[in-house]
Amino acid sequence: MATWELTTSGSATIKAGLHANTITASGTEMAKMYDEAEGEIITQTRRNWVADYSSLPSGIKGALSDVCSSMIGMAIAEYDPTGYLIREWDGIMNFNDDRITKGMARLKDFKSNEIKTP
Question: Helix axis angle, 58-79 relative to 9-16, nearest 10°?
Answer without folding.
Answer: 50
